[in-house]
Amino acid sequence: MAESRLQKLSARGQSVWIDYLSRDLLETGELKRMMDEDAVVGVTSNPTIFQKAISQGSAYDEQIKELLEHEEDPKEIFLHLAVRDVESALDLLTPVHEGNAEDGYVSLEVDPNLAFDTAATYKEAIRLHEWIDRPNLYVKIPGTEPGLQAIEDCIAAGRSINVTLLFSLQRHQEAMEAYVRGLERFVEGGGEPAKVRSVASFFVSRVDTETDKRLEAIGSDEALALRGKLAVANARIAYQHYQQVFGGERWEALEAKGALPQRCLWASTSTKNPAYRDVLYVEELIGPHTVNTMPEETIQAFEDHGDVRGDTVLEGVNEAHLLLEQLASVGVDYDDVVATLEQEGVQKFADSFKELLDGVRTKRETVAA
């Protein structure tokens, strides 16, 4: 059978993950099919994804009915529902993980309302890791300033972490530093770094959405010419920083003991602006030792007409740095763009989590009746 476009992408060293999980995806065999045919080797999830899955249809009704015999807290009910899905996906992906320890992961996120509470984030992340005691589980922690310390502490405790909601180059640098420091602490305590993994989920398309809005408000020809460029440039610079951090002497000391780098994971890779190519944020960020976690429509679009032309994440890095200067010259404040996106990202996840719990309450009442 001819090699598919997603298989070609995988052959370039970029792991294909999907950014959604549901019981239907598991029970219909669709996830297994995607693993076999679309080179899918990992799954991420977030409150928005679970909210949609649980609120639609009746796939979760029977388990909710069982849970109501001993549990009333909607968050605990949700976690039991999510854990069952995550464990089923982990079972499917275990052979992948056994063949390549960098893949075969499923991610489950801590309560986004804890994003600015270091101690509570750490406590919940450890709880989830203990609840789902599998080597291929990632617990997702937002890369906010308080979250970074929780991330370091989890790594130091030997737990694998997916650092999520990264928009800024500075936060990405801090996430890499948290990983390295955590590994150093883990090794000092006698731990084996080969057992700990991390990815840095660097969000892409939303950067263009926010920046384009500001450029259009400015309205000059010079400003409008810069639309649709920052997201890719931002990610390419982040990859350059990744190469620098995981190529120096400090890292080599850990690498000699079995540590692996914190891979860049491109998240939010669906194209929000219909004027842009629908596989833009996949085609332009292909590169070795990276992950692209895609929504269903992007998986389908890339399989249909995606172009795998080479390691595109390495292209135009000098131009990417120049773009930051050009944006500043027309009046776009990069630091304010990424700070706004981080704040809004946490709030969107918190809002989805609230909506999710409201949905669980409604389901609980419906099923009980």
Describe the protein:
It is built from 17 helices and eight strands. The chain is of the alpha/beta class and 369 residues long. It has a single domain (5-368), classed as Aldolase class I (TIM Barrel), CATH 3.20.20.70. An eight-stranded parallel β-barrel has the order 1-2-3-4-5-6-7-8, surrounded by ten helices. 48% of the residues are buried. The mean pLDDT is 95.
Key attributes of the depicted protein:
369 residues; TIM Barrel
SSE map:
Layout: H1 5-11, E1 14-18, H2 23-27, H3 30-37, E2 40-43, H4 47-55, H5 61-67, H6 74-99, E3 105-109, H7 118-131, E4 137-142, H8 145-156, E5 161-166, H9 169-188, E6 198-203, H10 205-218, H11 221-224, H12 230-245, H13 249-255, E7 263-267, H14 280-283, E8 290-294, H15 296-305, H16 317-330, H17 334-368
Parallel strand pairs: 1-2, 1-8, 2-3, 3-4, 4-5, 5-6, 6-7, 7-8
Helix pairs in contact: 4-17, 5-17, 6-17, 7-8, 8-9, 9-12, 10-12, 10-17, 12-16
In short:
The protein has 369 residues and is an alpha/beta fold. It is 57% helix and 11% strand.
CATH architecture: Alpha-Beta Barrel
Alpha carbon gap, first and last residue: 51 Å
How do the strands line up in the largest sheet? 1-2-3-4-5-6-7-8
Helix-residue proportion: 55-70%
DSSP strand content: 5-15%
